[in-house]
Amino acid sequence: MILVASTLTASTAQASKEKDRAEYCGSNGLVNEKLHNGTRWTMCWRVDAKTGLVLEKIAVQAPGETVPTTVIDSAALAQLNVPYDSGANEWNDITSYGFGDRYMQPMTKEECPGGKVYGQWLGTGQDTKSVLCVSEEETGFAYRAKTGNTTGTGPLYTKQGHDLVLRTISKIDWYEYVTEWRFADDGTISTALGATGDLAPSDYTTADYGWPIGTNLADFSTNHYHSAFWKINWNIGGAGNEAVEQYDTAPTGEVGRRAAILRTTKTDIPVEGSFNTANRRWWRVVSPTLNKDGHKRSYELELGASDAYEVHPETAPDVSFTQYRACEKFASFNQDPECTATSLPEYVNGESMTDPVMWVRVGFHHIPRDEDQSPMPFHWQGFTLVPRDFTAQNMLTPDTRRYVNGRVGRPTS
User: Fold this and answer.
1) What does the pLDDT look like over 131-187, one tens digit per residue?
2) Cα–Cα dist 159/181, whole Å
3) For 111, which DSSP code?
4) How far, in whole angstroms, is CA 140 from its chain's centroid?
5) CA dihedral 98, 302, 283, 253 (to 10 degrees)
6) pTM flag (> 0.85)
7) Cα→Cα distances 175→78, 85, 201, Å
8) Most buried of the four, 72, 79, 114, 392, by CB within 10 Å?
9) Angle CA(244)–CA(250)–CA(254) in degrees, nearest 5?
């Protein structure tokens, strides 16, 4: 009877959460997909005239779990700064134009192979556009372990991974941008901005500020930056009240039996601040909720290749953390009358954080090449959010390996 009651309670809780999310999402605004390996991702989606694709109420349900667990309250682009090396032009594509409204492009079925295309009404005078592609894609190895000693005499455990992928396309002048979000079956979240289309036919300069495109050395396409910002409003475990931590690992100057000794130290970040990467440095956002091992749930920021544009104070830091304010919508040129601050450096004013927002800047310095004509091949910039102790074990751990949790064979006395 107890087991039946527990099952009914879990089932009721799941139905209630799914109903609440569906009501919040509205008509055709819900994505609820179970991946091949059993992980389910649910979220609301909508199109904002400026930021384009906005995802809200993002939750994951690992195989074997009975209810989804919230991860992120909202996530979207927050600016795209495009200055040219010659100084002739500089654009802020999000606030000056926008990735939604008439700039968001319809998605054909051919551009969404094997997936589903979702439509949304984007504004007065426009018909409903099919703008969002939702698909499941294979990602290669999820894991592989030939158990046993170094000769691998035990059973082989191997699995191929899958991502739930959401994409939209926005056309700003000659460039076409793909906003992409990937939700993996192991709980990892990654996002990237892809740029394609054409080089602007009017942006040519001298050899000091551009690269020769075309025959001989007659035409130099201007080098330029793409500094993209994302804004992540966390809600890990659905409890809010997250903390921010920075970790640094450095040599101690001592040597152990076989190698140098390195020590990892934690720095709490209780107030707003902006930060840059360093060797062996990383950040995580930590929930007060616990996984089944009794460890605090968190997500870790993994930054890949990125070029800072040091000219502007907002484009110099790699990541900033601020206290949530609804009116702080854009990393720069914020014009919400509810906020006196207009850019990220003004948001970072030493306020204590009980509801931290993560602002991630990823820069790409585009030096054109012959291969960019035409159409231009994609170049991508983005980052990854990795679950750290969100679950007690890998979401895809097979039942026969569940006993491997901590030090197996540890002495009991």
Assistant:
1) 999 999 999 999 999 887 777 788 999 999 999 999 999 999 999 999 999 999 999
2) 22
3) G
4) 20
5) -140
6) yes
7) 18, 17, 11
8) 79
9) 145
Residue for token pair 């000056």: 96
Q: Which of 192, 191, 132, 137 lies closest to 163 in space, CA to CA?
A: 137
- Whether the predicted pLDDT of 1 surpasses 70: no
Residue 108's SS3 state is coil
Distances from the Cα of 185 to the Cα of 37, 106, 291, angstroms: 7, 28, 18
Q: Where are the beta strands (DSSP E) in 235-374?
A: 243-255, 260-268, 273-275, 281-290, 296-303, 319-323, 356-366
DSSP string, 89-130: -EEEHHHHT-SSGGGBPP--GGGSTTSEEEEEE-STT--EEE
CA–CA distance, 130 with 104 (Å, rounded to integer): 10
What six digits make up the tokens of 394? 């890998």
In sequence order, the β-bridge partners of residue 137 are 163
Residue 178, CA distances (Å) to 164, 167, 195, 293, 373 in order: 16, 6, 6, 39, 18
Among 313, 117, 82, which residue's Cα sits nearest to residue 199? 82
User: Coil, helix or strand for 308?
Assistant: coil
In degrees and rounded to multiples of 5, residue 101 shows phi and psi of 55, -135
| 236-248 pLDDT, tens digit each | 999 999 999 999 9
* Residue 328 three-state SS: coil
Give every CB contact of residue 171 below 8 A, 6+ residues apart in sequence.
Answer: 103, 105, 177, 197
Residue 257 to residues 249, 254, 350: CA-CA distances in angstroms? 19, 10, 44
Measured distance CA(410)–CA(140) in Å, rounded: 34
Least Cα distance to 308 among 336, 349, 345, 276 occurs for 276
Residue with tokens 């934690």: 266
Residue carrying structure tokens 């703008």: 131
| Residues 225 and 366 sit within 8 Å (Cβ to Cβ) | yes
User: CA 82 to CA 226: how far, in whole Å?
Assistant: 5
Each residue's pLDDT tens digit, 95-143: 999 999 999 999 998 999 999 999 987 665 666 889 999 999 999 999 9
